[in-house]
């Protein structure tokens, strides 16, 4: 009963990921996934939000994003129907919260009957990407009052709280993404009491809302020692009664289920015995109900067909 709640394709994230979505789904089936959340990135809406690879023709790049999202939803539904006997596909998207005005856009996209859920993520601080490259990360640090990193971390968790309270996501993406480009990604944030207070506050908000953090194995393939979230945060979250779902945050065939066994071992070392996913149950009127489903970690491990 292996699954992922967070994935991307090169078909709908060109320049950012690789491979056609259908090929990724077929590969996910081959490695033993029985549930897969498709979560392509939502559109961005301003020229200053484009990434370097999109700047050869900025207007065309920006104009392509909303219709690409619509095309993604159509293809995801086609694949759900085509492979329904082999894998349970959930159709979702990864939200952005670049600035507060994004809230209305996210909630509008999420209200579509074509969408089962969305990942609540934060990839920007002070409007600047924090996970693109080190130079851009340093721009974000400087925008928060650097040269040290503590103000950036504080701003990240403040903006994350705004995202949590405004969007109330059922799944929170890479909770501590801010550490990816850090000078010390393994830093114990309790060394910064004011930042740690913000971390605990945000974890309490997630638990209060009934949301889940993902254990995101992408941190391992990006060179970090632990998945998102790191151990100190994960321990605190669990002490508050938090629940984990599981994600590879794959950006192509080569990353499907990458480092899953390491991530499962990490969770087991924290005392986690079960993970959570969704089951979409169709209703007679054509709508669907999304049920929360507990899966033993042992069943996730046993379901994987990895070399």
Q: Could you explain the architecture of this structure?
A:
The protein has a single domain (2-303), classed as TIM Barrel. The chain is 39% helix and 19% strand. It contains 10 helices and 11 strands. A hairpin with a 2-residue loop joins β5 (124-125) and β6 (128-129). The longest helix is centred in the first third of the chain and has 25 residues, at 58-82. The chain is globular. The mean pLDDT is 97. Its EC number is 3.1.3.15. It holds the Pfam family PHP. Pathway: Amino-acid biosynthesis; L-histidine biosynthesis; L-histidine from 5-phospho-alpha-D-ribose 1-diphosphate: step 8/9.
Structure in a nutshell:
By secondary structure, the chain is of the alpha/beta class.
What is the rounded Rg? 18 Å
Integer count of domains: 1
Strand elements, count: 11
Helix content: 25-40%
* N-to-C series of helices and strands: EHEHEHEEEHHEHEHHEHEEH
Based on helices, strands and strand pairing, what is the structural class?
alpha/beta
Biggest sheet, in brief?
Answer: 7 strands, parallel
Global geometry: globular
CATH superfamily: Metal-dependent hydrolases
CATH-defined architecture: Alpha-Beta Barrel
Strand order, sheet with most strands? 1-2-3-4-7-8-9
Strand content: 15-25%
SSE layout:
Layout (H helix, E strand, L loop, with lengths): L1 E3 L16 H10 L2 E9 L16 H25 L5 E8 L6 H9 L6 E4 L3 E2 L2 E2 L4 H10 L6 H18 L3 E2 L20 H17 L2 E5 L1 H4 L9 H9 L4 E4 L12 H10 L4 E9 L5 E9 H7 L4
Parallel strand pairs: 1-2, 2-3, 3-4, 4-7, 7-8, 8-9
Antiparallel strand pairs: 5-6, 10-11
Helix pairs in contact: 5-6
